[in-house]
Amino acid sequence: MANPSLAAAPPRPRRKRPRSFTTERRPGFLVYGILLVFFLGSTYPLWYSLVIGSSDPGVFASAWPPLLPGGQFWHNVAEVFNTVDFWAALGNSLVVSSVITLSVVSFSTLAGYAFAKLRFRGREGLLVFVIATLAVPTQLGIIPLFMMMKEFGWTGSLGAIMIPTLVTAFGVFFMRQYLVDNIPDELIEAARVDGASMIGTFWHVGVPAARPAMAILSLFTFMTAWTDYLWPMLVAPQNPTLQVALSQLQSARYVDYTIVMAGALMATIPLLVLFVVAGRQLVSGIMAGAVKG
After folding, report:
1. Rounded CA gap, 148 and 154, in Å?
2. Percent of the chain as helix, strand, coil, to the nearest 5
3. Residues 66-122 pLDDT 10s
4. What string of DSSP letters covers 215-270?
5. How much is the pTM?
């Protein structure tokens, strides 16, 4: 007689294998649909500028605006060149934007590193003061700044455009917030123990860690300086940047918006080139900083 203890036991339920945390879920149609909507909404103004800038003035008399570019783009661009000194204004904008970007990134990285990792008397109070200046509207400082530039005899020069914006409170605060969490104090102490000076520690430890944030700040600063209109128009109308020069396209009694759109599109092309050239380095820098953190 068979032993009941040796009878076949019921099969054990198969355990579910835990899902690996490294498994990546591919985005679905909803994610791609939302991204497509944002992409179309972001590129539509640029596309509309191309459509209007490549059409003739009769496009505004039609009941429905066209969806495809016309064949008048180069004619409208030639009218822009005949109306304003485009190349001189483009050179002024390149000089102003490049100098402001280099200065803001350099000074902001130095000040951000000092506020984040150095210990000195009055650090917290100075940081609060820097943050408080962000709440002051820019328009409140225009009249005092203009009076200072006039007193110094700098009005009409590119220096009057650049000097007030050589460093920004936003850049200092941005770099401080990034460096305070991305540079371990132990790494700074190890560099000082090895005999590195304060400047050497900043150059060999702080700057490599700050490169992703420096890339982002450079892009934002260059774009802000490139598109600035109010301050360059007030302090140096005789030596205009590109945005100030293009405003002359609307100074006549009759405004041809096809030419205005062509000029606006020409002013946007350098920014698009900058994004295309620096986009890969910017993303790689952000990912490198995220992995290190």
Report:
1. 9
2. 75, 0, 25
3. 788 888 889 999 999 998 999 999 999 999 999 999 999 999 999 999 999 888 888
4. HHHHHHHHHHHHH--HHHHHH-TTS--HHHHHGGGG-SSS--HHHHHHHHHHHHHH
5. 0.81
